[in-house]
Structure to design on (261 residues):
């Protein structure tokens, strides 16, 4: 028997979740939402239910498989950029042109591999239970925003440097590279603070104190992470470390399932 239009409105919320989760828990989740709606006399999901489904469903897609694929992607991109820097830098400048290559190469180093590494780290932490799905999604959004600011900072600094070298005004964009840098640090600190808050709040710390301490720690750690991902060589090292962590996590999961069986 097919679903009624009333039921279909709630069932559509489950599309945010990965297929494996829907297979295991979809019927129970749908039944729970329908019972709550019937008890309140409504036939559509509330805004809170829609937001919760989106945040939790997207967060559940951050799993070990995604962490592994993103780590491989970061490793390959880092290797390619390393080859360019070591052996083909002058040829790349000739092919792209001085004006484009001057900002394209720094922006590529600041965004490509770090983006995949960010997704991999958040996915792995979510998979092992260090963060809830909504918290993982929030950390990912903050981390990707930080990378976007880093890209803007790299491009602005390059433009400003070239303008200063030529003795011409850099313009608003080139003059505000420090603003982009500050924005990147703040959002990177927020991304780091999310898993730290999850760790601190599990103890006896007051929530407000846990938020403050986690953000302060994030401000201290964020510049270190930015420095670590500044070169493709460091990103390649980080990708290898994440691949090893994924392998260890996968083996532990298999052993746990074997013991339960």
């Amino acid at each position: 028997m097919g679903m009624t239009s009333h039921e279909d409105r709630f069932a559509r919320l489950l599309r945010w979740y990965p297929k494996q989760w829907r297979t295991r828990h979809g019927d129970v989740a749908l039944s729970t939402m329908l019972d709550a709606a019937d008890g309140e006399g409504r036939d559509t999901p509330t805004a809170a239910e829609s937001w919760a489904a989106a945040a939790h469903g997207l967060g559940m897609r951050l799993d070990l498989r995604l962490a592994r694929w993103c780590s491989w992607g970061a490793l390959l991109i880092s290797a390619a950029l390393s080859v360019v820097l070591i052996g083909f830098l002058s040829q790349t400048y000739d092919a792209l042109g001085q004006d484009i290559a001057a900002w394209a190469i720094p922006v590529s180093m600041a965004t490509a591999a770090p983006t995949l590494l960010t997704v991999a780290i958040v996915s792995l932490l979510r998979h092992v239970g260090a963060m809830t799905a909504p918290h993982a999604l929030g950390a990912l959004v903050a981390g990707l925003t930080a990378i976007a600011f880093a890209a803007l900072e790299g491009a602005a600094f390059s433009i400003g440097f070239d303008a200063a070298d030529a003795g011409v005004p850099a313009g608003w964009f080139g003059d505000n590279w420090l603003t982009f840098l500050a924005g990147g640090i703040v959002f990177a600190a927020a991304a780091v603070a999310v898993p730290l808050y999850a760790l601190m709040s599990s103890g006896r710390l007051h929530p407000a104190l846990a938020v403050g301490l986690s953000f302060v720690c994030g401000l201290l750690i964020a510049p270190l992470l930015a420095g670590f991902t500044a070169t493709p060589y460091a990103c390649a090292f980080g990708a290898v470390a994440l691949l090893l962590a994924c392998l260890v996590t996968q083996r532990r999961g298999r052993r746990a399932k074997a013991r339960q069986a």
